[in-house]
Amino acid sequence: MGYSEKLLDYFQNPRCVGEIPDADAVAEVSNPVCGDVMKLWVKVGDGRIQDAKFKAQGCSAAIATSSYATEMLVGMNVADARLITRDQIAEALGGLPASKIHCSVLASDAIKEALKGF
Amino acid sequence: MRPEVVAAMMPVFTEHFGNASSIHWFGQHAKSLIDDARQHVAKLINAEAGEIVFLSGGTEADNLAIRGIAESQKSKGRHIISSQIEHHAVLHTCKDLEKQGFEITWLPVSRDGLVNPENVRGAIRKDTILISIMHANNEIGTIQPIAEIGRIAAEADIYFHSDGVQSTGKIPVNVKDLGIDLYSMSAHKIHGPKGVGALFVKKATTLKPIMTGGGHERNRRSGTENVAGIVGFGEAARLARLELMQEMLRVRELRDRLEAGLKSQIEFIHVNGENAPRLPNTSNIMVDYAEGEGLVISLDLKGVAVSTGSACSSGSLEPSHVLTAIGKTPDEAHGSLRFSLSTMTASEDIDFVVEVLPGIVARLRELSPYYKGNSGSDH
Ligand SMILES: Cc1ncc(COP(=O)(O)O)c(C=O)c1O
Ligand code: FES
Predict the structure, then answer these.
(1) Measured between alpha carbons, how far is B220 from B65 in angstroms, rounded to an integer?
(2) Disulfide engineering: A60 pairs with which of B33, B110, B123, B297, CB 3.0-4.6 Å?
(3) Catalytic choice (A8, A34, A59, A76)
(4) How many CB atoms lie within 10 A of CB B344?
(5) Given CB atoms, is A33 within the 8 Å cutoff of chain B?
C-alpha cells in the first residue's frame, strides 16, 4: 500500500482525537483535491499551544497526518507552529505515496487557519 | 488463477513451443490447442467457435469492437449510442472517436444503475451505426436489459456491442438470444490468465481490424497467438461453464448474507444498485461518515482485500463516474466499497468481514466531525 509502519500506527491508533469544548480557536478545513475534512480545536495561552485535538473524515493518510500534526502542536509556541509545513508532516511519517501527497495539506491548512487570530 | 488453469498452461511453456501458424507438427499441435480453447470460450456464451477472436484482453476487445465498426461503417454514419456507466475501455475509446468526428449519445441510467431501453430507441438516428451498452457493470454489478436493447438494435438494423467482461462466466450468457453482434470477454475475470481476452464477432459482421499484419484469427486480429494464455482462457471458460449454475447460487447466497449482516449491524449504509438485477458476486456498499480508502486499508490490515469505487481507477481521486451517474455526490462516492466474491470466496470469509467491518466503521466514525452525537458539528 506504500504507507510506512509509523503512518499506519497513527492511522490505527490516532493520538489527540476529540474536541475541546472551551477551545480558543476551532478550524474546519476541507481538502480542495478530494473533499476530505479535518477539524482542529486549540487552546492557546502565554503564546503557546496548551492543548490541541482533532477529528477528521478522510483517508488513512489524512487521519494519520492530522493526528501527527495535532500531537506536534501541543506545547509549541504559536510562532513556530505557524511554520509547520505539509512536507514536514509527511516526511515525519515516512513520506507519502505519489497519489497521497495532497493529503498532508489538510493538517497544515488547519493549523494555519486555527492560529490565524493569535 | 485457478490451479487447474495453471496446470493446463504449464505444458504449453515446457513442451509445445510451436508457432500456431507453422505447418510442422509443433505448430499444428499449438493450433489444435487453440481450437479447443476456442470451443470452450464459444460454448460459454453459446457462440460458434468461428465467431471467437482471441486478443489481449477486455480492453482490446472493446477497442476492436467499437473502432472496428466505426471504421467499417463510417460511410453510413458517424453516430454511436453508449451509456454513462461504461468501463473506461469503452468510455475512452468512444471519447477518442468523438475527437475524430463521431458523435456519441451518452445515455443516463436510473438511480438503480439501469439504462432504459426506451431511451436507446429514442436516441436512434438515421446515421446511428453502433449501440454499445455493457452487459453487467463492473462497479455496482447491475445487469442491463440487453435482450431488449438487442431487439431494438436488430429492428433498426444497427450493430450492437456489449462489454461482457464482468458477466461472462458469472451468469448464463446466450449471445444468440440476446441479439448481440459483438461481445467482449476477458480471461482474468474468470480466473484465467491476465493479458488474454476474446471478442465474439457474429458471423458476417464487417469489422475493420485494428491490428493488421499476418492475418491471424481469420484476418480479424493479426499477431502470433499467445498460445499459453489462450489455453488458460479455454480451461477457465470450461470450468466456468461447468460450475456456473452451482457457483452462481452459492456466491449469491454469500453476497446476500454479507449485505444482510452488514446492514443489520451498521447504520447509514446503502447497497448501490440494490433494486436492480445484479451480478451474484458484486456488492457495492456505501458507508456514510467514513471514507472508502480508510475502510479498505483497515480491512487490508486484517487480511481482507476489497476496493474502493472502481479498482481500475484506484489511485484516482475523481469520484467514480458510475456512482456519479446513479446520482451520488462526490462525498457519498468516496465512502464506497466494492466487494467482489468468487469461486475462491469461502463462507468463513464472509463471516469474518461481517465480524470485523462494523468495528472498523465505528472506529472511523468516532473520528468523523460529522457523525451524529458529535457536538460542534454544523452539518
Ligand atoms: C467491464 C470491463 N470491461 C473491460 C475491462 C478491461 O479488461 P482487461 O483488464 O482484460 O483489459 C474490465 C476490467 O476490469 C471490465 O471490468
Ligand atoms: S484522499 Fe483525501 S485527504 Fe487523502
Answers:
(1) 10
(2) B297
(3) A34
(4) 8
(5) yes
In chain A, where the domains are located? 5-114
**B271 φ/ψ angles, rounded to the nearest 5 degrees:** -100, 120
| Nearest residue on chain B to A12, alpha-carbon basis | B298
Nearest to B360, CA basis, from B280, B303, B294: B294
pLDDT in tens, B213-228: 999 999 999 999 999 9
Grid coordinates representing A56? 477528521
For A5-114, the fitting CATH number among 3.40.50.970, 3.40.50.740, 3.90.1010.10, 3.40.30.10 is 3.90.1010.10
pTM for the predicted model, two decimal places: 0.89
Q: Is A20 on the interface with B (CB under 8 A)?
A: no
Active site residue A103: yes
Count other C-beta atoms under 10 Å from residue B4's C-beta.
Answer: 14
Q: Is the CB of B173 under 6 A from ligand 1?
A: no
Number of Cβ atoms within 10 Å of the Cβ of B65 = 31
Specify the pairing of strand B197-201 against strand B282-287: unpaired
Q: How far from each other are the two terminal CA atoms of chain A, in whole angstroms?
A: 39
Task: Determine how many CB atoms are found less than 10 A away from the CB of residue A77.
Answer: 12
Q: What HEC string does B205-273 produce?
A: CCCCCCCCCCCCCCCCCCCCCCHHHHHHHHHHHHHHHHHHHHHHHHHHHHHHHHHHHHHHHCCCEEECC
Nearest to A71 by CA among A53, A94, A84, A86: A53
**Pair B208, B270 in one domain:** no
pLDDT digits (tens, 9 = 90+) for B116-159: 999 999 999 999 999 999 999 999 999 999 999 999 999 999 99
Q: Count of CB atoms within 10 A of residue A32's CB?
A: 10
